[in-house]
Design brief:
Elements: E1 2-10, H1 14-25, H2 29-37, E2 40-48, E3 51-58, H3 64-72, H4 75-84, E4 88-89, E5 101-102
Antiparallel strand pairs: 1-3, 1-4, 1-5, 2-3
Length: 109
């Protein structure tokens, strides 16, 4: 099993943040199915103010390419991502079109 951690910001607006959290109380079933089909075993998102932190645990052999391929073939995934951009704000170091940025682990106990 591999663990990946990501960061992303939200638009700094309390109403939009509340809406974003509401969507994540129960994500669309197709999104959950595609997450699991891509080899993601567990996913959690944490928030402080408008900063998000996501932990993703994957099965052995997981690849971001496979995940992206599954998402590209799903109109629901594309609809979800477009909707989420209403709330999400790329980090200052993100390249054009990038959302969640992979974080580098600097310490482990």
């Amino acid at each position: 099993m591999e663990r990946y951690c990501f960061a992303l910001d939200l638009v700094d607006d309390p109403e939009l943040i509340a809406e974003y959290e509401k969507y994540h109380e129960k994500i669309w079933p197709e999104i959950e199915e595609n997450i699991k089909a891509s080899g993601i075993l567990d996913m959690e998102i944490y928030r402080i103010e408008n900063r998000l932190f996501m932990i993703m645990e994957t099965e052995d052999g997981f690849s971001f390419e496979k995940k992206d391929e599954i998402a590209a073939q799903s109109s629901k995934d594309q609809e979800w991502e477009e909707l989420m951009w209403k709330y999400q704000k790329a980090l200052p170091t993100a390249k054009s079109g990038e959302k969640w940025l992979l974080m580098k682990r600097i310490f482990k106990l």
